[in-house]
Amino acid sequence: MKQLIETIVKPLVDYPDDVKVVADEQSQRVVYQLSVNAEDMGKVIGKQGRVAKAIRTIVYSAAGSHHGKKVYLDILD
């Protein structure tokens, strides 16, 4: 899943080396925390959050059941 998030986000940003995805797995859910360069934050979020929503939709769809755990994607400042 981390690879999928990086594959989606890296082409969108000016600083692809600064893209980092950290997985925080808990008993009932998995939270992927995405961080990018501060200058790229607007590109990842998009106008009215449309790009962020699209990324989340893809990630949630790809996760499927993920072994019965709920999957979340947080975009960190």
From TrEMBL:
Keyword terms, alphabetized: Cell shape, Cell wall biogenesis/degradation, Chaperone, Cytoplasm, RNA-binding
The protein's role, per its UniProt record: A probable RNA chaperone. Forms a complex with KhpB which binds to cellular RNA and controls its expression. Plays a role in peptidoglycan (PG) homeostasis and cell length regulation.
Subunit structure of this chain's protein: Forms a complex with KhpB.
SUPFAM superfamilies (alphabetical): Prokaryotic type KH domain (KH-domain type II)
PANTHER family: RNA-BINDING PROTEIN KHPA, UPF0109 PROTEIN SCO5592
Major subcellular site: cytoplasm
Gene Ontology CC terms, in alphabetical order: cytoplasm
Intracellular or extracellular location(s): Cytoplasm
HAMAP family linked to this entry: KhpA
Species the sequence originates in: Sporosarcina newyorkensis 2681
Family: Belongs to the KhpA RNA-binding protein family.
GO terms classed as biological process: cell wall organization; peptidoglycan biosynthetic process; regulation of cell shape
Gene Ontology molecular function terms on file: RNA binding
InterPro entries documented for this protein: KH_dom-like_a/b, KH_sf_prok-type, KhpA
Highest taxon listed in the record's lineage: Bacteria
Name this polypeptide is given: RNA-binding protein KhpA
Chaperone found in the keyword field: yes
